[in-house]
Specification:
The protein is α/β, with parallel strands linked by helices. It is built from 13 helices and 14 strands. Strands 1, 2, 3, 4, 5, 6 and 7 form a seven-stranded mixed β-sheet that branches. It has a five-stranded mixed β-sheet with strand order 11-10-14-12-13. It has a two-stranded antiparallel sheet with strand order 8-9. Helix 1 packs parallel to helix 9, helix 3 packs across helix 7 and helix 6 packs across helix 7. It starts with a strand and ends with a strand.
């Protein structure tokens, strides 16, 4: 799974990326800090089933801290957009192309309105974040439309002469964008015009609807700690799914935690100071961060990640095991894996996720909670612990 970070330049995408992945990337108060996309690993935070079963787990590919399971996903920070990017302006549409493999997008916005349309710093409140949101969506739509419209007359003729269906041709054209044919079919349902009758506006309208369903966006309303941000956050929430956050606060907390100054876990609503020998400047920074947590409930960074994966993409967590009694794999690792599966996935889908051979030789699955056998078409539930039984 891959989540992309979109947004205009100089709104805090690199800080968000660092806060979410704890990797060191260039951070500066000027446009185009990110010229090449940064790819890192961030984590979805969920309650682990280890507490329910009162076992001490030892995950292999994820992390469990005090009953909180952190499941890795890929995060790509795409360099900032400027108006006209789809035409090659600024650093061009390469930014949009970098987002093509993303399953969903986080749009980082300067909720305080302290960055103009070109990514230059300005007085807080002087820029409209809602316009920033609309312009990035438009740039993405126009970029997608430019791909669809290429050789459109040829596509229209093939459909007209019933050589291929429109959804098949579009699926081929968009195969590199992780857009499945069934999504294209869904968007085309209410389309009454024949492809040969489509004009530029029809293609742009289709591109917009396809983007909304194939590349869903969650807005990270960044810089929510600045006074002018609050009213803008309300306006953003009326328009789309927006979550107030402060990437700077999250980054500060994680760095302080790494140094042993505080005790803090990503997504927590509070932190505990461990070092009693802090400077006035350090205490002032922590006090400011505490005030933000008290107001908003968290820094918002983990909320954004969890929302886009669990709520927007509708993923559930499933724990496969080999030993039903010990809840372990064959090496004795307890609850070794936690897989993010699409809601509606089956036991056979889980088998394929683990290994192709396991799926091809599938006999049945076992629901560890009730010790009942289930078939290949059993629909997985969140927090299921499943044993896959296959022929050798």
């Amino acid at each position: 799974m891959q989540i992309g970070l979109l947004g205009k330049t100089n709104v805090g995408k690199s800080t968000f990326f660092s806060a979410a992945t704890e990797l060191v990337v260039p951070i500066a108060n000027h446009p185009f800090t990110t010229i090449k996309p940064n790819v890192g690993i961030t984590y979805v935070r969920v309650n682990c089933v280890c507490k329910e079963f009162k076992v001490k787990d030892n995950p292999i590919h994820s992390i469990c801290i005090n009953g909180n399971r952190f499941i890795p996903i890929k995060l790509i920070d795409i360099a900032g957009l400027v108006p006209g990017a789809h035409k090659g302006r600024g650093l061009g549409n390469k930014f949009l192309d970098d987002a093509r493999q993303a399953d969903a997008l986080i749009h980082v916005i300067d909720a305080a309105g302290a960055t103009d349309s070109e990514g230059r710093s300005c007085a807080a409140g002087s820029n409209d974040p809602l316009e920033d949101l609309k312009f990035v969506e438009e740039e993405f739509d126009l970029w997608l439309a430019s791909i669809i419209s290429k050789d459109w007359s040829k596509i229209a003729r093939e459909v007209e002469h019933k050589i291929k269906k429109l959804e098949e041709l579009l699926a081929e054209k968009l195969s590199g964008l992780s857009i499945r044919e069934e999504l294209i079919v869904d968007v085309l349902k209410n389309t009454k015009k024949k492809p040969i009758e489509w004009d530029e506006n029809d293609i742009i309208s289709f591109a917009k609807r396809l983007r909304m369903i194939s590349k869903p966006i969650v807005v990270a309303a960044n810089k929510a700690d600045i006074k002018q941000a609050e009213i803008n956050i309300q306006r953003l929430k009326e328009y789309t799914l927006a979550i107030p956050c402060s990437a700077e606060a999250e980054l500060l907390l994680k760095l302080a935690s790494k140094k042993g100054i505080i005790e803090y876990l990503a997504g927590d609503s509070k932190f505990t100071i461990k070092d009693t020998n802090l400077t006035k400047e350090q205490m002032a920074a922590l006090d400011k961060t505490k005030a933000f947590l008290d107001k908003w409930g968290s820094t918002g960074i983990q909320d954004v990640i969890n929302t886009i994966v669990l709520k927007v993409l509708k993923m559930i967590v499933v724990y496969p095991v080999e030993d039903v009694e010990k809840l372990s794999d064959k090496k004795g690792n307890i609850l070794p894996d936690a897989y993010l599966m699409k809601e509606g996935s089956t036991a056979k889908d889980l088998a394929y996720t683990i290994h192709t051979d396991l799926a091809e030789n599938f006999i049945y699955a076992l629901d560890v909670r009730n010790k009942q056998r289930v078939g290949a078409d059993y629909k997985l539930k969140n927090n299921d612990i499943i044993q896959i039984v296959a022929s050798r």
